[in-house]
Amino acid sequence: MKTMRIFLIIIFVGIVATLGYGFYIKPEDYKTGEFCIGISVAALFFVWMPLFIYHRWKGKNVKDYMLTRENIEKMRDEGDQKNL
Fold this sequence. Notes:
The chain is mainly alpha-helical. It is built from 3 helices and no strands. It is elongated. The mean pLDDT is 88.
């Protein structure tokens, strides 16, 4: 798990560096700046975000986070016990 975290941090720093570079060179070289900004935004949403979501949800049960009848009843019971 630690290697995945380091990998995500390295990718994120690279994406932010590319985005900053694109904004920095934008007035001088308009097309290259736009390309760097576009690539960094696309990489953020199509590469980094799915890897991050996979890393955070790995090993968790999705049913625990869904609003099913059982979970709603559990929430009501816990609310009654806490006198909310």
